[in-house]
Automatic annotation (TrEMBL):
GO terms for molecular function: 4 iron, 4 sulfur cluster binding; ATP binding; ATP-dependent FeS chaperone activity; metal ion binding. The keyword Cytoplasm applies. InterPro entries: Mrp-like_CS (IPR000808), Mrp/NBP35_ATP-bd (IPR019591), P-loop_NTPase (IPR027417), YlxH/NBP35 (IPR033756). GO terms for cellular component: cytosol; nucleus. Its main location: cytoplasm. Component of the cytosolic iron-sulfur (Fe/S) protein assembly (CIA) machinery. Required for maturation of extramitochondrial Fe-S proteins. The NUBP1-NUBP2 heterotetramer forms a Fe-S scaffold complex, mediating the de novo assembly of an Fe-S cluster and its transfer to target apoproteins. Implicated in the regulation of centrosome duplication. Negatively regulates cilium formation and structure. Signal peptide: none annotated. Keywords: 4Fe-4S, ATP-binding, Cytoplasm, Iron, Iron-sulfur, Metal-binding, Nucleotide-binding. It holds the Pfam family ParA. It comes from Chauna torquata (Southern screamer). It comes from the Eukaryota. This is NUBP1 factor. SUPFAM superfamilies: P-loop containing nucleoside triphosphate hydrolases. It is found in: Cytoplasm; Nucleus.
């Protein structure tokens, strides 16, 4: 009965993309927010961003929605909208203060994730982007299980160039293989820094073992792209603005747009192949 309720609620979702990371602080939520903004730039597409990072919900601030609350109607919870075609849902909207700590055990987290999928009135959606917490634990198993009745296009895995980050990404890739979650590809964040004055490039996080590119070659996974450091990214997130529209000339914006285009192409190809099978 629960599976049927989830299927019914989510039957109008065309594409589902999970954003994963092996560890925290690599720019996963930033990427999720910018992916949603980038996809929603096409006004003909309906985009939903679901934040299941229960203990560290940063999406409301990044999307400029801090202080907003969720409203309930006869058809369920209503998402909070950034634009007419970009809706957001996060536990951050349910807290009385942004500083409140969520001190929950696994079953309660799993229950909320199920509630987000079953009770939120998303409507017709072209892209459902799911921002997950770091690691491979309760939330990840739950979202894969609950979305198992639907088609998940795949996962985008975020890393930084240094080995300490890549080590955890290998575990994330292993997790995806074990739960049969397709991997769309890997994004390397903080990949070098070009000084805006002298134009010299510095490696803030040196890729001592070859970075994401070498890892992807070894594990036969696609590298979607490398995003250089840009101080404006952090500033835009703090202000709740889209970095893509605030800094259109930045090399990082160009990288993000290329990556987003590759994700769209991947989703369209898989949707086409699915229709052929049906």
């Amino acid at each position: 009965a629960e599976a049927a309720a989830l299927r019914e609620r989510l039957r109008c979702v065309k594409h589902t993309v999970l954003v994963l990371s092996g560890k925290g602080g690599v720019g996963k939520s930033t990427f999720s927010a910018l992916l949603a903004h980038g996809l929603a730039a096409d006004e003909t597409k309906q985009v939903a961003l679901l934040d299941i990072d229960i203990c560290g919900p940063s999406i409301p601030k990044m999307m400029g929605l801090e202080g907003e609350q969720v409203h309930q109607s006869g058809s369920g919870w209503s998402p909070v909208y950034v634009e007419e075609n970009l809706g957001v849902m996060s536990v951050g909207f349910l807290l009385s203060s942004p500083d409140d700590a969520v001190i929950w055990r696994g079953p309660k987290k799993n229950g909320l994730i199920k509630q987000f999928l079953r009770d939120v009135d998303w409507g017709e959606i072209d892209y459902l982007i799911v921002d997950t917490p770091p690691g491979t634990s309760d939330e990840h198993l739950s979202i894969v299980q609950y979305l198992g009745t639907l088609h998940i296009d795949g996962a985008v895995i975020i890393t930084t160039p240094q080995e300490v980050s890549l080590q955890d990404v290998r575990k994330e890739i292993n997790f995806c293989h074990k739960v049969k979650l397709p991997i769309i590809g890997v994004v390397e964040n903080m990949s070098g820094f070009v000084c805006p004055k002298c134009k010299n490039e510095s490696q803030i996080f040196p890729p001592t073992t070859g970075g994401a590119e070498k890892m992807c070659q070894n594990l036969n996974v696609s590298l979607l792209g490398k995003v250089p450091l840009d101080p404006q990214i952090g500033k835009s997130c703090d202000r709740g603005q889209s970095f893509l529209s605030e800094a259109p000339e930045s090399p990082a914006t160009s990288s993000y747009r290329n990556i987003i285009q590759r994700i769209q192409e991947y989703c369209d190809l898989h949707h086409f192949q699915e229709e052929k099978i049906i």
